[in-house]
Amino acid sequence: MDVKITKSDGSNSFTLESKGIIVQDFIVSSVPVSGIYGGVEGRSGVVDYGATYGVRTIEIPFYIKASDYHDFPLLRDVLFEITTNKEPVYISEMRRSVYQTGENKLVGGKRYLVRISGEYSIEQMFKYGFGTLTYETVALPFAESIGTTKDLQRDGISVDSELWGYGMGLLYDDESTTYTHNVIAGRSFRIYNAGNVPIHPFEQKLKITISNVIGSTDRFQITNLTNGSRARINVPLRPTNKVIYDGPNVTRNNLAFLRDTRKDFIDLSLGWNEFNIYFCDSARIEFDFPFYYM
To answer: How far is CA 66 from the centre of its chain?
Structure first.
């Protein structure tokens, strides 16, 4: 087993094994659910106001093996250096094949955005040291696909790629891996969310690019017919305009554009999402987002 650690900006990555740390397990807790309840005087029980997801923990038991007693504190300090950081990092689980041969490979194409939690110590036994790293999820408790729909559309699903794996909800057909559409008004198109978590641009990564709009004389609108969410632009768009909805941020040709919209946003349900465009003849629509998993 092994663990790959990547800086949140993707600038650097390494495995624990490459630093002399041997991973014994990768223990992921379930996503904690916290109910929100209220009370009404004179009424039995509670009023259910819904629930929220809490912080998920991931424990990584490990051991280190020094070449001699003098080498042990050096190896211990290397471990402290690479794991003790205030900034969040991505961690990915790695395992060998069922035959236990060859190199460790990424499992399931998923990663977690985490930060080290609390403190840990290393119990020394001769030249060995044993301990457990405990991480807590940052922002969202979900696993995130390493690849995005842009990677999926460009390269497809390859058995040799570690970006994708079994159990990710992917379909092996061209339509489900197509996330760029040249759309004619009145003809719907579909976008596939392979994850098992809905996607909202205020919480998750979701980038929608609108370009080459033809025949827009008053406004523009794209609607998710599956869940009713929509994004309306209150001014006409030209073919040279490129409008990008990147999370809660909206730009046109790299300039702030939110004030010219209705300030509503597209979100994605599980599985297939059917879309249509309005107030134009045609447009090019591109979706780029990772998938999210419980």
So the answer is: 36
